[in-house]
Amino acid sequence: MIKRLSSIRFSYIRSHLYGLFLTTVTLLSLLLSIYVLFAPAWLNATSIFVYVLLYIFLGIIISFYAGFKSSSDIKERVDYLSVLITQFANGNYSSRMIYFNEGDEITRIANELNALGEKLQNQVKSLQRMADEKADFAKSAHKAAVIEERQRLARDLHDAVSQQLFALTMMSEAAVRQMEKKPEIAKEQMQEVATAALKAQTEMRALLLHLRPVHLSGEALSTGVKKLINELKQKSTIDFRLFIDDDLTLSETTEEHVFRIIQESISNILRHANATEVTLQLNKRENELFLHIGDNGTGFTIEQDTDRKTSYGLKTMKERAEELGGTFVVRSNEGEGTYIDIRIPC
What we know:
Number of helices: 9
Order of helices and strands: HHHHHHHEHEEHEE
Radius of gyration: 34 Å
CATH superfamily of the largest domain: Histidine kinase-like ATPase, C-terminal domain
Number of strands: 5
Oligomer: single chain
Strand content: 5-15%
Low-confidence stretches: none
Number of domains: 3
């Protein structure tokens, strides 16, 4: 209620009421002066009191009407400006303001916002053009990238899967030694072996996910994503819910970046989320590509995230989105899953 009383419309009403107050004080002072100095027969205390009350009553009605009437136009124009700024914040830089013809300060602000939108749109085009050029350079350095990727996978295999397999071997040998002497302890150790094996299997799936081709092997983005999800459905118990447009027309660079973002996101889910359901939505909305990835996993506190691998993956996805002039938003809380929304102008 207090916020509403601070709006432009009520500011106009307050200014009219203030003018009414000043006019009433002036008129009352004038009438009292005439009454004291000249004491005309037609002017007495009762007539002054009735006249002033009637004047105030009519003035309040007129103040409210004039305030609403005079503020309607400026309020509507300010609302247009607010909507335009919101469109810019959401990455829709093609929006323009074309309704103002008054030539006042608000019109000047609208023209400056239109110029800002045009500059932002040109910057997005420049970013996408630079991304295309970067993709051309990346192709020429493909062999070096393959070597680097192999080295990274080798490090991950050694740091994660290799150590887990070594632990499995040690626990299995210990269980065999306890099998006859203490079967209860052996049973507990075998359960630990099963848990460690499941963790190693999940880690391997996440690593194999990165072995998918960067350039989609010439396939369309929708086809490549569907194949990737179908393979994961056969190898994991996660319920994938896929909503993707089949008629997406995107540049090769945009397709590669979006595909790699999806790869990285699903890899993080496999490694860290312990999720049972994953929703992936990819479609085109007006002049932007919208990508949503959500899971019902353990989630995390973004401000206090100390997992370097998760942070690195999120940073990589954000960088890829920003290279295309897009916006990257991640929402997560412990026990409430993780949700990623990406909007890319196209």
